[in-house]
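Name: Response regulator transcription factor
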Amino acid sequence: MIAHTRTAETAIRPVRTLVRAPDPLTHSAVSGQLGAVPNIEVVTADHPGPADVAVVVTERMTVEVTSLLRRFKNSLRVPVVLIPSEIDRADLLTAVECNVVAVLPRVAATSSRIEEAVLTAAAGGGVLPAKLLGELLRQFERMQREVLSPHGLHTSGLTPREIDVLRLMSEGLDTAEIAVRMCLSERAVKRVVFGVTQRLNLRNRPHAVAYALRSGVI
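Structure predicted for Response regulator transcription factor:
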């Protein structure tokens, strides 16, 4: 199992956690476990407030659960700890797309592991069993090979030419210098930059460079 340590900020303020479960008994059990942890505060109907992390317990990734996760992604915008009884390959990628950063099979979801997953999620990390992590990496590799590469795209959504332009921009080259280095016209370089900013809804050149840096392509 892979986990990242929590930050000092998480240790100072309790992590506000929203719990969703398929039945009242499970909800009460998970809420009680988390509520007993000093640095975790369970958000309930009686004590409403913004959440830092959502915990979703489910049997499997049904349409209803997927819809719930998408609503959480759009409204709460918080990382999700998913505790399913079972999850298959297709469901794993869907879960990741819905801000799920930790997956704990229910058979292994002890109190300490749920606590660790919540604190890790709040700190910006993730928790995946080795088998699921390997499957996730294989899916991304398959996506790159079968979907993105044939269209000249990277997992970041950038083309090789766009990546090259942004890399040179990050090195401080201006439009004319990039054009000379890449054997393009200045107009072509500007079109590349314009295409990136428009397609990815980026504000300007520095924003585009920052996006490429965060994506790990430059």
